[in-house]
Design goal:
0% strand, single chain, mainly alpha
Length: 74
């Protein structure tokens, strides 16, 4: 697995990272690589659980931000 991550970094993210001038964008590129590295190491069942939790959280946030709820909170 380690060799595959090195190949991914060298073939894809290294060029983006080195040519980016803005430090904030460099952080985003590196964070994306770390995220993909973590996902690649997860067991498939764990990944499905995490993805489902994320989807449910986003649906909850959408519900909280609906126009009716915002008006009633004010």
């Amino acid at each position: 697995m380690h060799k595959k991550l090195v190949i991914l970094w060298n073939n894809t993210y290294k060029k983006k990272y080195l040519f980016e001038k803005d430090l904030a964008h460099k952080h985003k590129i590196y964070a994306e690589f770390i995220f993909l590295s973590l996902i690649s190491c997860m067991q498939p069942n764990l990944f499905r659980i995490k993805a489902t939790e994320r989807r449910d959280n986003m649906q909850d946030i959408d519900g909280l931000l609906s126009e009716h709820k915002v008006k009633s909170a004010l």
